[in-house]
Each structure stands twice: as C-alpha cells, then as structure tokens.
# Entry
Amino acid sequence: QVQLVESGGGLVQAGGSLRLSCAASGRTFSSYTMAWFRQAPGKEREFVAAVSVSGGSTNYADSVKGRFTISRDNAKNTMYLQMNSLKPEDTAVYYCAADRRSYVVIATISRGGVAYWGQGTQVTVSS
# Structure
C-alpha cells in the first residue's frame, strides 16, 4: 500500500513558477514509477510527466516540455514537479500517481488503471 500526499499548489500569475511535492508513505517508494497528472474543470484527467524508479529517465507531455521538470528523491520518499513559465491553460488540479509499470507506459494508462493516486492540489494561473 502506498499513500501519496501532494502539496505546493496555489495561485500564480502567468509566467510565474510553482514547485509541487508528492510525499509517499511506505518503504517501497523507490520501486514505483512516479507521475503527475492533471484535470481541468470539465476535462478528462491527462498525463503531465513521469519519472523512472531511479530518477534517471523522464517522460513529458508535449504541452509542458521545456517548462516543467519532474524529479524524485528516493531517500526522502518524495517526488517533485518544478513548473516554470506557467500559462492559464495549466490551471488544473494536479495529482500524484504511483504505478509499477514503466515511465513510458504510465502515460498511456487510463485513470482507473493507475495503482495509487494522491488527493490532488489546485494550481491556478491567472492571466
């Protein structure tokens, strides 16, 4: 069992930055691929970024490439999402996810297929 708790969301102006964190419970954090998804009002939940179990490989949605950076610290059981050059269209609830499949495959898994989810943190970008 893995419990995930996100933090770091908030209100920021367009062009600004935020850093999200996802703290995981349990001693098996380093065996899970970790990812961020987001869901805007009235839209489906979508993949944002994923990081491999070692942290050495990453995968990003085209919409955030070059602006967002995902990372993890296995010693601290924590994953991060550094978000720069934020746009109003980045406004959404951001969810932390954990799964045993790869950092490539997790981008294609439907919402119901991911093993563990956090409760989400709101990010609002004003224009």
Summary: The radius of gyration is 13 Å.
